[in-house]
């Protein structure tokens, strides 16, 4: 209705008669078609008016942001701030661009904007004319000239994407840098790495990965029958948003020529992006899931989704739904604020949705909704399928943030190695040099002890979805670790400089 009202306001500026009016009902504004006082019939706009409006949108005569005079009317548009109208706040004259107001005020209208106006006018006029059955009044948006104009507009205006408006794409280089900082022991971070790699290569939708099971992923390798087969992974999507027939669509994720076709690690235990690719994460991730779900049968593991969150049944967050397995296969007791369901109850629509409270110690509790988990038989664990870019971005950011302390520690270890080389070169028979070397060695040993103490006080890596800053205690421990590590690194640098001067003295002697 706002598009129709804006179109009507523009027509009146060009000298055309108005065809709609605003009627207040129960304090709400409603748009109705005007009844002509002479003919007694509903009044519609002329086809020429729509053609002129299309030309105005293409040339810039129609301003972006709507009609400023209409948005200055506080009875039709809500007051923006401190009693000022939307025209004063959002459409000031000093901020007017070449084509009007808004984030793209200096760019002309795109084809989609004209099509939205055409759709709004066609539907609104059709619905209004239904209130006048038997009246011979034609909808101008179904006129042949209207169709011809829209065809001309489609041929003149571009429909391609505007590259400068698109978000930056995830490149292979960025992915390799992310792999370097993924925690190899975190199943959640490994899942995010595989998810982002598949999305980068294939461009699949989140819907595809949400329905992807382990049986739909198989490893490819050269064989005697097919020696030309490239190594990698074959992903077969059975059901996607654009594949309603549930036909398998195979997509390969090949290993590059430099890949070792297996997960490789660096000396400090991180993933080695120079010797492995994203396809190698697939089976390493499955092995991690198998170890987490120890006790589950092979049949159960084969039917699991590829991307899952795993939690202990006893550690499920409050507000979760838990679909329980058979009684004989249950291990662990969930908390008080977890809604227990059977598969049949879940299919019937039962579950906690935040409207009915849990009763704990005689009090009603409304925890936030935490999703639905499914208990894995004989494992004591519950899983939940996930596949969306919001979670992957959060996990990737958490992995990058956690790499800060790791990089700081690696720099300290590198300083130890550098200082050790200086100490070896500083060995000499001179007593002063020997005393200086002994003092430097004692300083290095003190630094090593400080690093060990920092490692002992270092909190275990938490799940990536939970930020360390969520807990004041964890944040304070992290700050103490960072302080201890930075102090150790500075001490090592001073020790290395003293060792260097000792080496120079020994050389001159």
UniProtKB/TrEMBL annotation:
Provide the residue span(s) of the region labelled Disordered: 220-248, 453-509
**Ranges of Low complexity compositional bias?**
466-509
Highest taxon above the source species: Eukaryota
Compositional bias, Basic and acidic residues, is annotated for: 238-248, 455-465
Protein name per its UniProtKB record: Uncharacterized protein
Q: Which organism is it from?
A: Emiliania huxleyi
Q: What phylogenetic lineage does the species belong to? A: Eukaryota, Haptista, Haptophyta, Prymnesiophyceae, Isochrysidales
């Amino acid at each position: 209705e706002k598009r129709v009202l804006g179109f009507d306001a523009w027509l009146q500026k060009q000298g055309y008669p108005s065809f709609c009016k605003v009627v207040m009902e129960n304090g709400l504004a409603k748009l109705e078609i005007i009844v002509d006082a002479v003919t007694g019939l509903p009044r519609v706009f002329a086809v020429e008016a729509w053609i002129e409006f299309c030309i105005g949108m293409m040339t810039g005569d129609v301003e972006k942001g709507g009609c400023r005079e209409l948005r200055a009317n506080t009875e039709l548009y809500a007051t923006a701030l401190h009693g000022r109208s939307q025209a004063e706040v959002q459409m000031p004259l000093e901020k007017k661009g070449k084509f009007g107001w808004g984030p793209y005020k200096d760019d002309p209208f795109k084809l989609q904007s004209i099509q939205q106006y055409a759709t709004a006018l066609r539907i609104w006029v059709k619905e209004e004319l239904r209130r006048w059955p038997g009246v011979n009044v034609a909808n101008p948006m179904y006129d042949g000239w209207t169709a011809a104009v829209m065809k001309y507009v489609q041929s003149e205006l571009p429909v391609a994407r505007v590259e400068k408006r698109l978000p930056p794409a995830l490149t292979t280089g960025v992915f390799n840098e992310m792999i370097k900082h993924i925690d190899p022991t975190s199943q959640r971070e490994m899942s995010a790495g595989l998810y982002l790699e598949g999305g980068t290569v294939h461009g699949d939708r989140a819907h595809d990965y949400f329905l992807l099971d382990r049986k739909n992923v198989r490893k490819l390798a050269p064989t005697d029958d097919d020696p030309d087969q490239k190594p990698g992974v074959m992903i077969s999507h059975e059901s996607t948003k654009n594949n309603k027939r549930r036909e398998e669509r195979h997509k390969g994720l090949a290993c590059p020529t430099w890949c070792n076709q297996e997960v490789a690690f660096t000396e400090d235990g991180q993933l080695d992006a120079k010797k492995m690719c994203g396809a190698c994460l697939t089976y390493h991730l499955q092995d991690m899931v198998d170890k987490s779900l120890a006790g589950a049968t092979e049949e159960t593991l084969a039917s699991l989704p590829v991307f899952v969150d795993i939690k202990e049944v006893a550690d499920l967050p409050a507000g979760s739904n838990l679909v329980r397995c058979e009684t004989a296969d249950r291990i662990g007791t969930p908390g008080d604020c977890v809604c227990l369901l059977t598969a049949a109850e879940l299919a019937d629509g039962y579950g906690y949705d935040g409207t009915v409270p849990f009763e704990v110690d005689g009090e009603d509790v409304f925890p936030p909704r935490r999703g639905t988990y499914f208990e894995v038989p004989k494992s004591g664990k519950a899983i939940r399928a996930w596949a969306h870019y919001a979670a992957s971005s959060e996990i990737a950011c958490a992995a990058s943030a956690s790499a800060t302390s790791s990089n700081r520690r690696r720099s300290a270890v590198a300083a130890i190695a550098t200082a050790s080389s200086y100490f070896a070169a500083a060995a000499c028979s001179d007593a002063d040099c020997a005393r200086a070397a002994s003092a430097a060695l004692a300083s290095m040993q003190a630094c090593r002890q400080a690093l060990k103490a920092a490692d002992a006080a270092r909190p275990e890596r938490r799940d990536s979805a939970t930020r360390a800053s969520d807990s004041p205690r964890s944040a304070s421990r992290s700050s103490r670790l960072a302080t201890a590590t930075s102090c150790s690194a500075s001490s090592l640098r001073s020790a290395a400089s003293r060792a260097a001067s000792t080496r120079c003295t020994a050389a001159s002697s």
